[in-house]
Amino acid sequence: MGNMVLEVRSLAVRINNHGISNKVLDGVAFEINKGEVFGLVGESGSGKTMTALSILKLLPRSAVIEAGDILFCGENVLTMAEDRLRRIRGGSIAMVFQEPSTSLDPVFTVGYQIKEAVHAHQDLSDMAAKELAIEFLERVHIPEPHRIYQCYPHQLSGGTKQRIMIAMALINKPELLILDEPTTALDVTIQAQILDLLEEIISEEKVSALFISHDLGIISRMCGRVGVMYQGRIVESGLKDLVLAHPKDPYTISLIESTKALSR
Amino acid sequence: MLKNKMVFVSLVFILAILLFAVFAPFIAPYDPARIDADSVLTGPAPDHIFGTDTLGRDVFSRIVYGSRISLSIGFIAVGIAVLIGMFFGSIAGYYGGRIDSAIMRFVDIMLCFPTFFLILAVIAFLDPSIITIMAVIGFTGWMGVARLIRAEILTLKERDFVAVSKIMGASDRWIILRHLIPNAIGPVLVNATLGVGGAILVESALSFLGIGVQPPTPSWGNILMDGKSTLGVAWWLTIFPGLFILFTVLAYNILGAALRDILEPRLN
Amino acid sequence: MIVKCEDVKKYFSAGRGYAGQRNSVVKAVDGVSLKIEKGAAFGLVGESGSGKTTLGRLILGSLKPDSGRIEVNTDRLNVIFQDPHNSLDPKMKVFDIMAEGLVLTGMKRSLIKDRVGQIVEMVKLPPDSLNKYPHQFSGGQRQRIAIGRAVLTNPEFIVCDEPVSSLDITVQLQILELLKDIRKKLAMTYLFISHDLRVIRFISDRVAVMRHGRIIEEGPASEIYSNPKESYTKTLLDSVPEISIKAK
């Protein structure tokens, strides 16, 4: 254990749907050390989201974990008791998804939902929870946090909602933050702001992070080490600068070249 | 799994009834109109497996020939309903606006009528012939299809492939017939399958009341009518046609539900 | 000049309050003027809500402007849409999808078969694709089908509305190369709409930046990307995440 927050060993996951069986993860292995931001980059179908969902055992019912271990701070998530797992989800391991509009419940105010997140993991009075919520709304640079606290999701922009998701993820001081394409659904100017926010808050909170994206530009900005995923496997991994400057795997090479072809 | 077995059994049953209808002359042991004064109201026996009725006619043969009536009325009535429904539904859905409102109000008005009594009224007014029955069931049963088609078309017409066709110069008729209807037909198939069962029930009810298919033409409903007056002494006149109506309608309902599961898969 | 827009406006009313309150108006396109010359690859870039898609539909004729003039000096135009799942009729075979434009003109069947065969080669689809259905193909291949369909009607002008946004980046590059290739071979004029500045930069020679229904900057692509004048354009360009290799 020691320095590793997350260790994934030979993870194999299969999906069975209406008689068709598909191996979506085929021996995925990587580690995330304390305090680092590890990037998982891959295109659609590479298995990156499946990997993230496996870490919290949030896979769809049609998915079967065939092999592998997922060690979070030394404990194996896959063999954990359900109620211990529930305490970890949203608490020690928090996740921010791609689509902010479906992550928030439309019938409750955002303030109520943040408070709910606090109550699920911390023993605070309602008043204290609300104060904490407002504090975090400020930390994610939401202007007029008291007003936004009372708003319903549909009244807010995508960027604001994603900031709220980030606040909800960090409010319980997680050890590991999983970000699955957190900016993909946002406009490019908002994307840049959210990435700025994430950089700032990850270093402030000193939280370890798994950053998933299809965009090499974003990955190269946010991460220290990267893993390149292709068809359910990590085909190359290592220090970001090394992988990007001296890629060895043919898929990595084509990914970098395509991205560069569309760059300046 | 149990559900799949039920669907399979239903399919087999429907096929059997279809075979009855098509090959009736070969399957029925007797002429359904053959009167036999000596064998009036005899129970099930080796020579009359479903017994005989008040005129000595073989019930089994009458049921076999009756399947022709029930199925043809079922299919044609539903066919008429689907055609009318597709016409109104696609025009309402595609053009929207006032045309849509007008057609939907018309649908609402039609839905206000208690269908069965409407059919009774129309039949009482006209002659209860098989064609009239088919037409009346069809003309009073299209509203569900219209709504379904309209709902599908409302979303389908916004799809990009429709926009592309328009830009390439396709006429409204082309778009409706070539693109929209083939894509909208799924729910209609389900509705139609269930509708066959419904039509068979309506026909049986009308015949049972004496204003449907007239004897000597055999129909499951009018055999039941015979059975009404002889319920105490000849249970076979009620039970056998009743069972056929029951199982046929049940089979179409199960098939309809299965089609719904196939064509409109629910997310797990 | 293939397309000319003069002060085009298109407003939408967005919903009504239940107490009979006045509709709120969305000014999707709020006074846009532009010219697209024959043979040009004109890129229209903007974020969501900028009005670029609405402007595209107005130029295509799918929508009518509320005010202003749109002049399209050709009737040989076609379109390629973003979502390869949405732009192909799932119940039609690929051959019929691609041939539809020609069938609508009443062309002879044998001639249509020849032309479709040629185009299938040009868009690099496997020859046995014609008998299959869209769902049997990947996103990139479906876009090739859509491109083939567009090209078959022998257009002078194609509007490409986010044609590669739903695709993986390696596939994006292939499709963009195909579009470039077609432009060279057939002297095509493009209106290219996208939110992705990298894509617009790759394929356009002239670029217009849209925001809140207006064009805030326009010029040759090289100029806009190297020397943006408006602050919004600068912000937009700075926001694009490029690969950076430096110590983290």
Q: Care to describe what's here?
A:
The complex is a heterotrimer of chains A (264), B (268) and C (248). Chain A is built from 11 helices and 10 strands. In chain A, the strands form 2 sheets. In chain A, strands 6-7-8-3-9-10 form a 6-stranded mixed sheet, sandwiched between helices. Chain A has a 4-stranded antiparallel sheet with strand order 2-1-4-5, with helices on one face. In chain A, β7, α8 and β8 form a beta-alpha-beta unit. In chain A, α4 packs across α5 and α7 runs parallel beside α8. Chain A is globular. Chain B has 11 helices and no strands. Chain C has 2 domains: 170 residues, 3-Layer(aba) Sandwich (Rossmann fold), CATH 3.40.50; 67 residues, no CATH class. In chain C, the strands form 2 sheets. A 6-stranded mixed sheet of chain C has the order 5-6-7-3-8-9, with helices on both faces. In chain C, a hairpin with a 2-residue loop joins β8 and β9. The model of chain C has no long low-confidence stretch (mean pLDDT 90). Chains B and C meet through α8 and α9 of B and β5 and α2 of C.
Number of helices of chain C: 8
Question: Quick one: biggest sheet of chain B?
Answer: none
CATH architecture of the largest domain in chain C: 3-Layer(aba) Sandwich
List unreliable stretches of 5+ residues of chain C.
none
Rg of chain B, rounded, reads: 22 Å
Can you write the helix and strand succession of chain B as a string?
HHHHHHHHHHH
CATH topology of the largest domain in chain C: Rossmann fold
Shape of chain C: globular
Summarize the structure.
The complex is a heterotrimer of chains A (264), B (268) and C (248). Chain A has 264 residues and is an alpha/beta fold.
Detail the topology: elements first, then pairings.
The complex is a heterotrimer of chains A (264), B (268) and C (248).
Chain A: E1 4-17, E2 20-33, E3 37-41, H1 48-55, E4 63-72, E5 75-76, H2 82-88, E6 93-96, H3 100-103, H4 110-121, H5 126-139, H6 145-149, H7 158-170, E7 176-180, H8 188-205, E8 208-213, H9 216-222, E9 225-230, E10 233-239, H10 240-245, H11 250-261
Parallel strand pairs in A: 3-8, 3-9, 6-7, 7-8
Antiparallel strand pairs in A: 1-2, 1-4, 4-5, 9-10
Chain B: H1 2-22, H2 24-27, H3 59-95, H4 97-112, H5 115-125, H6 130-140, H7 143-156, H8 160-167, H9 172-208, H10 220-229, H11 236-263
Helix pairs in contact in B: 1-3, 1-11, 3-4, 3-6, 3-7, 3-9, 5-6, 7-9, 8-9, 9-10, 9-11, 10-11
Chain C: E1 3-14, E2 24-36, E3 41-46, H1 52-60, E4 67-72, E5 77-80, H2 94-105, H3 109-122, H4 139-152, E6 157-161, H5 169-186, E7 189-194, H6 197-203, E8 206-211, E9 214-220, H7 221-226, H8 231-239
Helix pairs in contact in C: 2-3, 2-4, 3-4, 4-5
